[in-house]
């Protein structure tokens, strides 16, 4: 009788082990997740603990599936992230459904937490950076680097690089007209000139070009670069104007090349082509790439649509567009959006304002690496002005615009498949 009871007990223990929660599912749909942004931080945290994660593309807003662990559940609770406990059988059923050819879904394995660098100066610039704000809010660690570190080849230590609000052309952000007499502008210009001289360059434009070329080499060698606002078009402009003086005297002390437009080499750029540079230092614009001055979009109708890709055939753009909505609120910046006719044909337009036919969110391949350009300054501050207070992301934990940034942060952790698009 005792032996029979023991066998039954062992059977039920075994049955319970099979049916009890074996996985944590972090849903990313609109209805189930309290804090989408911190959910990415939980996923990154798990990767730092050598826990492999499955990113369920197009399943419940791009949910994450992780092995169940007490520490993981505690971390979700502490950070306010919604999660569900599911059995091994239910997890297998979900993965089986996702693998069906009839489903535009895919399970992508995330294996290693990418090491993140943010290219940013060590001063108190009168604006905030969306990427550093969301990394901090999501509790994803990052390190800051600037020109000296880049020129010393320290980019090789990182998997992912973000370009903070930056002007790689040496024109100090084209802020001359409005801000040339302000203390912060004067100090920034003086500091930039001193740094260029320290690094062995006569002009800031020459030093910034050298930095842009190092970043280019980093991407070509297999790195991932994410840039927003003016760091996107000014980077390409600097590459295209290599060896050509495009700066007016108030920027570098001597006249620009009068025929510089004819000397622009579009073959050197990452994303843009056939653009015309803005010659006047009094105009707050770099070139015809940006659509800010050409926009006819009322704020209440300013949205952009995310493109849909085949999760099984094109997992890369699918990862980068994961969201709980396909319609994202627009937001402005020095570089708000990109002229569709000035984007190279091999670059994917992943987000588009259809009313104005402008590209907001683009991605491409360069050599062995990848880049993503995201127009605008702050996804939750429609028209962020110099000196405005920073956005409190605790008020926007489900921001679709900020989710796009964090998709890019996790992307290097994925086991890559060659995209077909």
Automatic annotation (TrEMBL):
<protein>
    <recommendedName>
        <fullName>Asparagine synthetase B</fullName>
    </recommendedName>
</protein>
<keyword id="KW-0732">Signal</keyword>
<feature type="signal peptide">
    <location>
        <begin position="1"/>
        <end position="21"/>
    </location>
</feature>
């Amino acid at each position: 009788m005792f032996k029979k009871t023991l066998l039954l007990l062992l059977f039920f223990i075994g049955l319970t082990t099979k049916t009890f929660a074996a996985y944590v599912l972090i849903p990313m749909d609109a209805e189930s997740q309290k804090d989408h942004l911190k959910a990415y931080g939980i996923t990154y945290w798990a990767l730092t603990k050598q826990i492999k994660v499955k990113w369920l593309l197009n399943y419940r807003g791009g949910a994450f599936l992780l092995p169940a662990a007490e520490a993981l559940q505690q971390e979700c609770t502490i950070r306010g992230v919604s999660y569900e406990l599911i059995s091994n059988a239910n997890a297998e059923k979900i993965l089986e459904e996702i693998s069906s050819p009839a489903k535009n879904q895919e399970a992508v394995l995330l294996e290693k937490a990418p090491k993140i660098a943010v290219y940013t100066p060590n001063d108190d610039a009168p604006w905030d950076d969306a990427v550093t704000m969301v990394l901090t809010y999501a509790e994803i660690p990052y390190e800051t680097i600037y020109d000296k570190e880049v020129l010393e080849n320290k980019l090789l230590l990182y998997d992912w690089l973000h370009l903070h609000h930056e002007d790689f052309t040496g024109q100090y952000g084209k802020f001359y007209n409005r801000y040339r007499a302000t203390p912060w502008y004067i100090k920034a210009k003086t500091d930039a000139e001193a740094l260029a001289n320290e690094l062995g360059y006569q002009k800031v434009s020459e030093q910034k070009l050298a930095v842009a070329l190092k970043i280019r080499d980093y991407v070509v060698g297999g790195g991932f670069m994410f840039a927003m606002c003016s760091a996107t078009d000014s980077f390409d402009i600097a590459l295209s104007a290599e060896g050509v003086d495009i700066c007016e005297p108030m920027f570098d002390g001597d006249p620009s090349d009068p025929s510089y437009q004819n000397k622009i080499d579009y073959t050197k750029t990452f994303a843009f082509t056939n653009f015309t540079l803005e010659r006047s230092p009094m105009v707050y614009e770099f070139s015809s790439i940006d659509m800010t001055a050409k926009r006819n979009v009322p704020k209440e109708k300013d949205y952009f649509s995310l493109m849909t890709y085949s999760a099984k055939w094109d997992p890369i753009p699918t990862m980068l567009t994961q969201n709980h909505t396909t319609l994202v609120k627009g937001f402005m910046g020095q570089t708000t959006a990109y002229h569709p006719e000035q984007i190279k044909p091999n670059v994917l337009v992943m987000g588009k304002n259809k009313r104005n036919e402008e590209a907001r969110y683009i991605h491409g391949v360069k050599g062995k690496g990848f880049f993503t350009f995201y127009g605008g300054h702050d996804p939750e501050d429609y028209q962020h002005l110099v000196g405005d207070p920073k956005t409190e992301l605790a008020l926007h934990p489900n921001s679709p615009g900020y989710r796009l940034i964090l998709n890019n942060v996790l992307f290097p952790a994925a086991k890559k498949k060659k995209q077909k698009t």
